[in-house]
Amino acid sequence: MTKNKEYRRQLESQHRALDEHLQKIAGELSRPPEQQRQGLIAKWEKTVAVCRQQIAKLERRLER
After folding, report:
1. What is the pLDDT of residue 63?
2. How many CB atoms lie within 10 A of CB 28?
3. What values do phi and psi take at 47, rounded to 5?
4. What is the rounded CA–CA span in Å between residue 48 and residue 54?
């Protein structure tokens, strides 16, 4: 498999993970404030940041 094809597959996977975690955050934030689990929200926000970094890195690799 070529590198570009592998990068595209990884990029698609990262986009799915990003969407999944953003949905989790939105779902948790839709709850009343006293029922929100701030620890989970913080964890998911870190995961979102990592996904965005990976997406940027993969997009740079595809531009070459």
Report:
1. 86
2. 15
3. -65, -40
4. 10
Lookup result for tokens 């970094």: 53
Distance CA 19, CA 32 (A): 22
Q: In the chain, pLDDT over 90 holds for what percent of residues?
A: 92
CB 54 within 8 A of CB 35: no
pTM: 0.88
Query: In degrees, to the nearest 5, what angle opens at C-alpha 26 toward C-alphas 42 and 57?
Result: 65
pLDDT (mean) for 34-46: 96
Q: How far is CA 25 from CA 6, 40, 54, 59, in A?
A: 29, 8, 19, 25
Residue 2 amino acid letter: T
